[in-house]
């Protein structure tokens, strides 16, 4: 969906086996001060479990990078990166669709970390227990006062938006422990059209 609101469902919605072998590609590096605002060419596919081999990881599955609340939530979470760095936790954003112009608009303005591409939407399916969870614009936004209020707040602080790309696939978040075999500590999925408020301090 294009606009996001609140209240994620916090539960183990997927077994670790559902995500360890997901094939992903890195679309961007982690942004460093002075780095040119360019997107690297896609790297060869890699197994998702390589991401958390050395350190635990948080993977934020983005509904759509042009979504105003997805941008606002991503920016808010990434602003806490120094805290996660101190804890030894990595942050990744996961997209289910690769539109280069959208990646460039999203990174690094709203998310300065590594952006991953899940072309088969396996992380998103795992959030739904094996199937994609979707919301439509009318029920998820137009008939949702909370979504409208959050949209207005994001707009008021200068977050921009567009309507490019698939916006009905719901996102969520995975917290994965360190190690070759890993462990799925928690997985959180959206309710209605939601953001990722679960990690606010």
TrEMBL record:
<dbReference type="Pfam" id="PF13911">
    <property type="entry name" value="AhpC-TSA_2"/>
</dbReference>
<dbReference type="InterPro" id="IPR036249">
    <property type="entry name" value="Thioredoxin-like_sf"/>
</dbReference>
<comment type="similarity">
    <text>Belongs to the peroxiredoxin-like PRXL2 family. PRXL2A subfamily.</text>
</comment>
<keyword id="KW-0676">Redox-active center</keyword>
<protein>
    <recommendedName>
        <fullName>Peroxiredoxin-like 2A</fullName>
    </recommendedName>
</protein>
<keyword id="KW-0963">Cytoplasm</keyword>
<dbReference type="GO" id="GO:0005737">
    <property type="term" value="C:cytoplasm"/>
</dbReference>
<dbReference type="InterPro" id="IPR032801">
    <property type="entry name" value="PXL2A/B/C"/>
</dbReference>
